[in-house]
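Appendix C: a fully annotated inverse folding record. The material below is reproduced so that readers can follow the format used throughout the book. The structure is listed first as C-alpha cells, followed by the designed sequence.
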C-alpha cells in the first residue's frame, strides 16, 4: 500500500471572512494556518500533499505555502473548477459558488491512489489529530476499503463569538463509531448554550457535550469513486431546488453511506484544541494561541527553516 496522502481543501470563497483567509498570515513569522497543519502532518509521517484551490489564488498558494512544503514532501495542486461536472450538465447562469467539499475531493480523482486524510486549509487541528489519523490510514489494507475515520471535536471548542458556523453534528455509539452526521450550516451561541437554526427565527439547542466534524477525515480511494457515482443525483436535485448555492457536501455523503450500511467511520478524539478563522474578528485569538504554542516550544520560531 502506498504512503497516505494529505488533501488540503483551500478552494472555498471565504465569504464570511471577507477574503481569501487561506493565505492570511497568523503566525509570528508570517505563517498561515495551513503552515502549522502541514508541519504537524509531516511530523506525523505524511510525505505527500495535495492542495485543492481555485485558479484565482493558485499562484499565491504556490508561493506562500506550496514551494516551502515541496522541500519536505511531494506537493501537487488541483483546481476546484465550477465547470468540472458530468457531461450533459451546465452551470446555472450567474453561479460563482463552488460545488462544495464533496466536489472538491472529486476534483482529485486522478491524483488519489492511496489512503488519504482531508482537512480544511483554515482550521488548526493540533498535533495529536494528525498522528491519530496517520496511524489509522496506515492500517487501511485495500483501496476499496469502506472502513473510514474522522477526528471529532467538542462543539463547545469550535464555535465563535462572532457569528454562526457550519458543523457536522455527530452521533457516536458506545464503541466509538459514527452512527449519523447531520450538516448544520448555522450553529451559534444562544441563551447560554449552543443552538442551530435554519431560518434565524426558530432555534434548537444542541446537547452538551456534542461531537462535531471539522472536515478532518480519513478515507481509502474508494470514497472518490462513490462521490463520482453520486454526483449526478446531487446535481439533479440542486438544479431544481437551489441552483445558485446548492453544495455537494462530504459529510452529507458520508451520512448517507452510514444510513445505507455502506461504510463504517471510526471517531478519533483529539486532545488538542481547535482554532479557526471563520470571521475576521476571529483572527486575534488565533494569532495569540499560535504565539503561545511557539513560546511553549511546540513549534520552532520559523517552521520551515
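Designed amino acids, in order:
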Amino acid at each position: 500500500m502506498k504512503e497516505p496522502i494529505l488533501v488540503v481543501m483551500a478552494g472555498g470563497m471565504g465569504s464570511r471572512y471577507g477574503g481569501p483567509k487561506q493565505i492570511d498570515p497568523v503566525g509570528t513569522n508570517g505563517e498561515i494556518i495551513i503552515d502549522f497543519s502541514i508541519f504537524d502532518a509531516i511530523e506525523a509521517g505524511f510525505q505527500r500533499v495535495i492542495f485543492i484551490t481555485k485558479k484565482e489564488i493558485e499562484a499565491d498558494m504556490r508561493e506562500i505555502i506550496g514551494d516551502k512544503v515541496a522541500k519536505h514532501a511531494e506537493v501537487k495542486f488541483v483546481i476546484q473548477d465550477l465547470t468540472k461536472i458530468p457531461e450533459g450538465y451546465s452551470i446555472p447562469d450567474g453561479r460563482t459558488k463552488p460545488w462544495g467539499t464533496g466536489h472538491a475531493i472529486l476534483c482529485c480523482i486522478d491524483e488519489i491512489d492511496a489512503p488519504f486524510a482531508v482537512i480544511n486549509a483554515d482550521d488548526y487541528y493540533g498535533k495529536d489529530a494528525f498522528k491519530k489519523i496517520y496511524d489509522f490510514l496506515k492500517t487501511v489494507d485495500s483501496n476499496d476499503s469502506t472502513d473510514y475515520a474522522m477526528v471529532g471535536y467538542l462543539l463547545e471548542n469550535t464555535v465563535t463569538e462572532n457569528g454562526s458556523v457550519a458543523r457536522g453534528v455527530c452521533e457516536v455509539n458506545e464503541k466509538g463509531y459514527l452512527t449519523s452526521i447531520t450538516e448544520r450550516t448555522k450553529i451559534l451561541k444562544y441563551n447560554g448554550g449552543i443552538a442551530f437554526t435554519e431560518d434565524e427565527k426558530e432555534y434548537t439547542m444542541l446537547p452538551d457535550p456534542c461531537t462535531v466534524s471539522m472536515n478532518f477525515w480519513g478515507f481509502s480511494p474508494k470514497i472518490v469513486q462513490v462521490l463520482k457515482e453520486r454526483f449526478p443525483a446531487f446535481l439533479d436535485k440542486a438544479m431544481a431546488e437551489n441552483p445558485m448555492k446548492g453544495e455537494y457536501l462530504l459529510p452529507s455523503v458520508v451520512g448517507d453511506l452510514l444510513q445505507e450500511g455502506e461504510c463504517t467511520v471510526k471517531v478519533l478524539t483529539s486532545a488538542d484544541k481547535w482554532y479557526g478563522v471563520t470571521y475576521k474578528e476571529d483572527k486575534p485569538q488565533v494569532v495569540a494561541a499560535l504565539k503561545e504554542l511557539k513560546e511553549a516550544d511546540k513549534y520552532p520560531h520559523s517552521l520551515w527553516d
